Amino acid sequence: MSSGSHLSKELHDLIKSIGETRSKQEEDKIIIKEVQQLKTKLNEKNMPPKKVKEMLIRAIYIEMLGHDASFVHINAIHLTQSKNLALKRLGYLCCSLFLDNDSELLILLVATLQKDLASTNVHIVVNALTAVGKLISKTFVNALTEPVLKLLTHNTDIVRKKALMVMQIIRQLNQDCITEQDYDDRIRRGIQDKEPSVMGAAFNLYHEELKRGAVNKYKPLTGTFVSMLKQIIEHKLHKDYDYHRFPAPWLQIKLLQILTLLGANDLKVSEQIYEVLGSTLRRADDTTINIGYAVTYQCVKCISGIYPQQSLLEQAANSVSRFLKSDNNNLKYLGINALTQIVSISQKYVLEHQMTIVDCLESNDDTLKKETLELLFKMTNEQNCEVIIQKLIHFLKTSSDANFKKDLFVKISLLNEKHAPTQEWFIKTANTLFEFGSEFIDNDVRNNFFKLLIDNFNDIGTEFGEFITEIYSDLLKNELQDNILKIVCWVIGEIGSQIYDQDPNKLNELAQLVITKLDSQLESETTISWILTCLAKLQSARAFQMFDQTRTIFQKYMQSKNLDCQQRAIDFFTLAKFNAALKGSKFVTVDPKMSFLDAYVQQERQRGAQPYNPSLQVKAAALGSATEAPSLNFGPYSDNKYGGGAKTGTFGTEENKTTNQNPSAPTIAGPWDDTGYNQKQPAAPKPVIATPMAIGSTTGMGSNGSGQTTTTKTAMQAMGSGQMGVNTNQPQNTYIPPVRPLPPKEDPNLKEKQKLANQLFPSISQTQQQPQQLYLFIHQINLEKRNFCSVYSKTYECKSKSNLSTSNLLDIDDPLSAQQPVLGVPQVYVQQPYIITQQPVVPQQQLQPQQQWSQPPPQQTIPQQQIKSYMPANINVDQYEQLWDRYQNVKEVTLQSKIKSEQDFRKMIQAININIIEVIEQEIICAGANAENKSCVLLYGCYNLNGSLDLKINSTDPKDGEYILALIKRQFC
Amino acid sequence: MIKVFLIVNSSGKIRIRRFYDEVEFARQQQIEQKLVQLTSKLSPNSCNFFKDLDGIYDKKCKIVMRFFGTLYFIAVIDEDESELGVLDLIQNIVDLMDKIFENACELDVLYHPDKMNALIDEIIVAGIVVETNIMDIQEALKQQETQIKNK
């Protein structure tokens, strides 16, 4: 060991005292003192060189500890001019360590460097070259190019080698310094150099060029590189280049890297490489030293990088699999990495090493585990997924490393989704996964899983539904973590309630199970919300009976301190009331022809009563309700309703005929034909009364849209009248666009009939009302603040009913989650009513600004106010340009402003509250809109560092431009 | 390409710092600090390679680390560089130090930053390994030293 004896006591003491410090503060104190000392000493004149050297070394030491030692920079530059080689070397070293490429001090160095590069002393040249390599920058690249290029023909190999490297840097900095041709010639001469070390340096230059994309240019050189590699592996190089008797390993590695780039995706070039690659791999395989493995690894990388060849791939996979069995983690790591490369070409060669790979997961090395997981993920397919996933789950159970577990969790769930052999297996695996990785279940995971379930459920149907409900209700019997409980609740609520819609026993069982969970220890209140939602979904099933229990539960949670929970409890409680009422009305079927009245009608007609014309009546009913809509009316024939005073009879008249020809009204006729009340009319449809329209159904909605604003009440009226005479198969005609109002007729028969009907079916008119209210209620949950025209038309059907309720419940489901599950079949599950109803008839100013701005340009004029406010406009550059061309109110000014940087500019834009669309260096374009009238403002700005600001403002309304300009002038100039 | 070459002692003090790409001084120190923290993950049997997943230098980069005596040798390399190759390069550098300082130790690195840096400059130029032949490097360094002594 060489001690620091020849060095001064000061340096020794400095190092010692720093070594003994216990805290950063102590260290700082010492350094401050030291810096003071150095500063005064360096300013003394006639310092002996040795002292200066020692002081610079102290400065290096200080800088290395992370402190500022910039005061010595100038001394370092002085030192480079020294004639003493040791001092010069130290000077250059200090410059390389201390100075940045853009330091102003560098200019002082250029002359010295030029002189030194031309020196006859090899060592001076070498040191100068090293410094140039580190410090050269665009500013003085021209001044140094010439001397560096001259050195390429220097007679010392060290100089030639370094000059080559510096040449590469020069070329990178400024292409114009060396022409391409010249550059090519010089590196070609480099690889032909008689000294292998210079040749090796030249390889680097080729490699860099290839990485830059000049592959085609150098393809003709493939043969040269191949023969060089061949010579190296055949020990044709001097023994000096052997490393542990392995011939020039680093050169081999470099050549392999070059060949990989040359042969990529090119069969022709690759064919030239295959042979030498094979033998290189074989020879490298024979060694048992690290560097041999490095070459093997590089060969594998090359084999998987070039055009694939089967036997080589096989050979590669075999060589690499040996790495995995090694005790050395480095080798295992490389082996895994190499296999990952091979897998991306073909899984075939890797699969046989599957179990060896899986065992690498047992390693205690993080890096290794991560890589192994990555590889396993890539190599899993349908055949091996069961084995691999089982293994992975095992690791999930046993691992204690949270990061690794998270990785595992994500990977397993992806693999499970992708490769699970059967649904059953999929569900079971997912459950195990959730069980052991419950802490990683977040909204994304959950929603994704729900989507998969519901997709499958829609594809396969009941069988699958029963199966998963079974599995999940079994789960409920155990202790569950909250995260899993949420999933279970969702499945039972969503799928269970559909599957067992008609099965009271099952429903009770499920509800009972869910209810017991409320009493268990729960981690958070949100879980209760999930349970409540599940119950609400269950109670919407038609055979549900436990309303008393659910009501008690909801009532209990109406006092919950959790707002979400409370809100849900209140909502569901109200729903429960209506749900219960709905049940009572379920299976009533009604003879729509009301044939029991036939005798009476006959009798009346014989007495001279007019026959009933249905189309007129129904239409008038619809119209009357659509235009007036004062109150609910479930008695479709109440004549004063349609009458409006006009009671002139027109049955069977011209007008009647034209109405019947009206294509929009043909199916209204329903059970009656157009000649009036006719009992012989065949095949009358049989609507099930007490089945209100499915809100969520797509059919029947929208087709009636004549742009009318009706409230939900009127929709219900239309519905109410519809259910008396509407043909259920053609629900879209329930509601008739107002072609023209027809004078309705009073029909004494009908009045009578109505009376009778009301007497006969009191229960109908009651029960039908409640379900309507129920759906209205559900609907209003969603629509409360939106004023939508919705026309309900589809007659209530069993299937769509349950879908309906679930869809609506789902809609208000989990307001806390940022993302709603995006579920499979849209019209059944995710649809929110407003999607399928008609165009929302919402006054423009109520719309969210963002919504409106997604489609520029909005053009409305509303009187402007004095103080304007703006809002961002989300448009892209293209739209910006289009808009710019469209408006003619360009204002162009140059201001002297406070804005000197992008940050300032951004502040300004923020202050105006518009948004930046694109920034190109100092030019920025922005867009915004007047918050009042949505007129558009486009702004182009170019700031300068000296504060001059070019602005162009273009706007729909010139006043906006002026206003913004004034604002900028006032606040930023 | 080698982006960073560091020699750090076991208590986290930087002994040699070489950045081969332009990196601001403040960021250099951040990077060093994080790399030093990473040394804690290195155990005798563990893997010497790390992927720079946290973006200490650049997410595409790899970190090779090796421990000798009281010193950690750390290299941040880009994706093209061979990890094992660099690992052996570190071995090479240690061998060279041994030859030049005769039983090298941390103090040699401390007291002779000039020699140490000259040694590294012979091997790595602008981040690229240009010379791996110990004999050649030793010869070149020896010549310089003799010339310095003669003057």
UniProtKB/TrEMBL annotation, chain A:
<dbReference type="InterPro" id="IPR050840">
    <property type="entry name" value="Adaptor_Complx_Large_Subunit"/>
</dbReference>
<dbReference type="InterPro" id="IPR002553">
    <property type="entry name" value="Clathrin/coatomer_adapt-like_N"/>
</dbReference>
<dbReference type="GO" id="GO:0006886">
    <property type="term" value="P:intracellular protein transport"/>
</dbReference>
<feature type="domain" description="AP-4 complex subunit epsilon-1 C-terminal">
    <location>
        <begin position="871"/>
        <end position="973"/>
    </location>
</feature>
<feature type="region of interest" description="Disordered">
    <location>
        <begin position="645"/>
        <end position="684"/>
    </location>
</feature>
<dbReference type="GO" id="GO:0030124">
    <property type="term" value="C:AP-4 adaptor complex"/>
</dbReference>
<dbReference type="InterPro" id="IPR028269">
    <property type="entry name" value="AP4E1_C"/>
</dbReference>
<dbReference type="GO" id="GO:0012505">
    <property type="term" value="C:endomembrane system"/>
</dbReference>
<dbReference type="Pfam" id="PF14807">
    <property type="entry name" value="AP4E_app_platf"/>
</dbReference>
<protein>
    <recommendedName>
        <fullName>AP-4 complex subunit epsilon-1 C-terminal domain-containing protein</fullName>
    </recommendedName>
</protein>
<feature type="compositionally biased region" description="Polar residues">
    <location>
        <begin position="650"/>
        <end position="665"/>
    </location>
</feature>
<dbReference type="InterPro" id="IPR016024">
    <property type="entry name" value="ARM-type_fold"/>
</dbReference>
<keyword id="KW-0472">Membrane</keyword>
<dbReference type="Pfam" id="PF01602">
    <property type="entry name" value="Adaptin_N"/>
</dbReference>
<keyword id="KW-0653">Protein transport</keyword>
<dbReference type="InterPro" id="IPR011989">
    <property type="entry name" value="ARM-like"/>
</dbReference>
<keyword id="KW-0813">Transport</keyword>
<dbReference type="GO" id="GO:0140312">
    <property type="term" value="F:cargo adaptor activity"/>
</dbReference>
Automatic annotation (TrEMBL), chain B:
<feature type="domain" description="AP complex mu/sigma subunit">
    <location>
        <begin position="1"/>
        <end position="145"/>
    </location>
</feature>
<dbReference type="GO" id="GO:0006886">
    <property type="term" value="P:intracellular protein transport"/>
</dbReference>
<dbReference type="InterPro" id="IPR016635">
    <property type="entry name" value="AP_complex_ssu"/>
</dbReference>
<dbReference type="GO" id="GO:0012505">
    <property type="term" value="C:endomembrane system"/>
</dbReference>
<comment type="similarity">
    <text>Belongs to the adaptor complexes small subunit family.</text>
</comment>
<protein>
    <recommendedName>
        <fullName>AP complex subunit sigma</fullName>
    </recommendedName>
</protein>
<dbReference type="InterPro" id="IPR011012">
    <property type="entry name" value="Longin-like_dom_sf"/>
</dbReference>
<keyword id="KW-0472">Membrane</keyword>
<dbReference type="GO" id="GO:0016192">
    <property type="term" value="P:vesicle-mediated transport"/>
</dbReference>
<keyword id="KW-0653">Protein transport</keyword>
<keyword id="KW-0813">Transport</keyword>
<dbReference type="InterPro" id="IPR022775">
    <property type="entry name" value="AP_mu_sigma_su"/>
</dbReference>
<dbReference type="Pfam" id="PF01217">
    <property type="entry name" value="Clat_adaptor_s"/>
</dbReference>
